[in-house]
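Quick check before the chapter quiz. The format below is the same one you will see on the exam, so make sure you can read both the input and the output lines.
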Amino acid sequence: MIVGYARVSTEEQKLDLQIGALKKAGCNRIFQDRGCSGGSFQRDGLEAAFNSLKPGGTLVVWRLDRLGRSLSGLVDLIDRLGKRDAHFHSLMEHIDTSSSGGRLMFHMMAALAEFERALISERTRAGLAEAKLRGQMIGRPKRLDQADLRRALDYKYVERRTTFETALHFGVSVRTMQRYLRETRIIYQQCDDNRPIMARRGLDRI
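Here is the expected output.
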């Protein structure tokens, strides 16, 4: 059985060109997705097309990007087809996994997808390392409670630490610490022990 799949990104786009090519290629059934991005492979029409395939069947698309725009996602989907003893055929790119040349093309795509994943992972690690060197905190921003804020103010103004050092010490980003300092209206009053009393709007003493 030859199953066709067609997709357009918006409701206004037409499927006529794709459907005409798929019918010409001998598709027995054609499944469609309208208004669906190629970035996600969670689509009703695509899932229905996939589930309709029997061993020995072929999934046909007019062009490879109609199936999806992620190389790794394409490889995963074609690999799933292979595990069901089904084939894949892209008309414009002349990729047909039922032939030795098509299988070679698929293995090349798989190698490129693995390379793509490695590059993304490498860039992510490099970005995290650079952010850490700049003192930026990774993940969900931490919030300081009143007790932590009092200690942070004492750490910065009494011990005369920089904003960067204070943010790093209390585990928040520099931007978050700057925001706390902007919101905190500091008033210096001298005590007998020469330690400043720091007052903040909404608090009598900090």
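If your answer matched, good. Residues 59 and 88 are 5 Å apart (CA to CA).
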